[in-house]
Design a protein that fits this description.
The chain has about 300 residues and is mainly α. The protein contains 14 helices and no strands. The protein is about 85% helix and about 0% strand. The longest helix is centred in the first third of the chain and has 31 residues. It is globular and about 60 Å long.
């Protein structure tokens, strides 16, 4: 009886831990979904000005999180990641830069839906770079996602948003590259790479602004919005994700974090009246279905390998 009771308690504890973890990952996606709102609150800033302060805010948030959590000096932990850390940091920096450019040159909905292709692109890159096999279900999910991508990009051609849409696809490619690099390296904590990309993106964007003669300190309202956009959506989002991710399978993380894609366009529509176009909603729905399908396929494949 005692053994049965212990088994029940353990099972209950596992389910409870998974539920808590899922809640944190959902909260992370919800935090990230407000990025578009903060970007629209800085209407006088170009992409590089916004990126400078947003990236600084992100780096500060991760440094504060590491300090409060007692994880040790974040810069020292970043250097300890070695070459893989450099690769992951660079990929995140590219993804961050192209994401803001896409949001400034196309709608928030387009930017979010297209960048949500990252899990699908990661599967393709994993196949070529890591030799990770794809079953028929996974291949069909990728094909479905590419159809959704083409629907959105096709609508963007008519609306003159090609640059923004291509930048959003580059964002997905950057995140996918970082994901594959982390799977290629030894299992470790890659959160310092978030701090690193914040510093890299901040420095690079500031240099571009100086080269273009753009002001970095005016107007103050735009500075505050951009800095807060790094501290709050990114900082709180990563804090929630890093707390919840270890308790949730990777496939489930992919689905749960899509709260960013679902709610991001909603907040901007409610606050600024930016209504998504029909091709964006149709293509975005197809992409979300593909991502959920890919998560299910990956989960099934992992369970089959475990037997």
């Amino acid at each position: 009886m005692e053994r049965q009771m212990s088994a029940v308690e353990v099972s209950s504890g596992v389910r409870s831990g998974a539920l808590v973890g899922a809640s944190y990952v959902l909260a992370a996606g919800l935090c990230w979904s407000f990025t578009g709102v903060f970007l629209r609150l800085a209407p006088h800033f170009g992409p590089w000005q916004f990126l400078t302060w947003r990236s600084l805010g992100t780096a500060l948030a991760i440094a504060i999180f590491a300090r409060v959590g007692g994880h040790g000096p974040v810069l020292r932990r970043l250097f300890a990641l070695g070459r893989v850390g450099v690769f992951v940091t660079s990929a995140f920096a590219v993804a961050s830069i192209t994401f803001i450019i896409s949001m400034k040159t196309t709608t928030v909905a387009n930017a979010l839906f297209l960048s949500s292709c990252a899990p699908l692109l990661a599967s393709i890159l994993g196949y070529f770079a890591l030799g990770e096999k794809l079953n028929l279900w996974q291949t069909a999910s990728i094909a479905l996602g590419l159809i959704g991508l083409l629907i959105i990009v096709g609508g963007g051609l008519e609306a003159g948003r090609l640059v923004g849409n291509v930048s959003a696809i580059a964002t997905a490619f950057g995140f996918a590259t970082a994901s594959v690099a982390m799977r290629w390296g030894a299992a470790r904590d890659y959160s310092p790479a978030i701090f690193g990309y914040g510093l890299v993106a901040c420095t690079f964007s500031a240099l571009v602004c100086l080269g273009e003669g753009a002001s970095l300190v005016s107007p103050p309202g735009d500075v505050a919005a951009a800095l807060a956009g790094g501290l709050l959506p990114m900082g709180l989002g990563f804090a929630c994700f890093l707390r919840g991710a270890p308790r949730v399978p990777a496939a489930a993380q992919t689905v749960l974090a899509q709260t960013e894609t679902v709610f991001g366009p909603v907040w901007v529509w409610l606050a600024f009246g930016e209504e998504p176009a029909a091709p964006t909603l149709i293509g975005g729905s197809v992409i979300l279905a593909a991502v959920v399908s890919m998560a299910g396929a990956s989960s099934a494949a992992s369970a089959k390998r475990a037997k």
